[in-house]
Amino acid sequence: MRRSKGIVSPNVNFAENMPFKSKKEAFLGNPVNKQKFIDMLSSKLSESGVRCLKAVDDADLLIAQSAVNFSKEQKTAVIGEDTDLLVLLCHHADPNQYPIIFKSDKQVGRKLKIWDISKTIKSLGEDICNLLPFIHAITGCDTTSRLFGIGKNIGLKKCKENAYFMEQGKTFIHSSSSKDEVIKAGAECIVQMYGGLQHEGLDILRWRKFTSKVVSGHVGVQIKTLPPTSDAAKYHSLRTYLQCQQWINNGQNLDPTEWGWYIQNGKLFPVKSSIAPAPEQLMKMIKCNCKLNCDTKRCTCRRNGLECSAACGECRGINCTNSNPVTAEDLGED
């Protein structure tokens, strides 16, 4: 939704021999056009003897699983750029089968990134590779938010050096973990990544980090630099578990609305928090005057983790990607 920047394009009734005269971004921004084009392209490739597999949900998972299956009989090359592919290959691949080579489709200068998955697994260790989906998801992927200032390297380092962090991370790999176990383990892992103490709790750590910045700083504290509240981390942990299970066990038919998501207008949106992110007086003070679509961190509201509101100058909280879509019910219409 953010990538489309709010552009709405019509359905195009096209055939394979029609000349293309539209803008690519607008054409592919329509999911109906995009799916029809994929179907047409798949048919053409199949007619030419190229085997095509269509993913119902996560294409990256299907690519990784297919590569692992092919590696049982022959050497296999996977070409792509997505970090998800590297993580899933390291998690699912069997180093005792034929080699799997993961190759980037982009060349930087004269260098080309190439990974031998078997050697990567042996270098990292099977225990680490087993937890890679958790590390990738909790530090931010397509369906989970990125924790400010916490990169993949921090999650990987904690997993290598901190036995307690690794033990908590296994909760997200087990298919039988309860919600309470996931929420507790997620909070403990986030505390560890922000340099907190075991069982300290996110809210105490957040307060401690805030007071430290106030005492030592010369400018106002940037709220985004603080650890998330325990309430926000709760839903982040639930979404992390759901994503891990989708990567590892194909989701086990888990209901997204039970794991940090809600449905509005037929689409899934993340539950950010069950309580207000700040006192009402403070929220009235934060507003933006974006001229465009409030889809970057230049937007004051987005930068502070708030949705745009009626106080904003241009969008007024109803005409941008940083606000919930307004429905007829919201306007009191029949």
UniProtKB/TrEMBL annotation:
Source organism superkingdom: Eukaryota
Protein name (database record): Tesmin/TSO1-like CXC domain-containing protein
The species this protein was found in: Mizuhopecten yessoensis
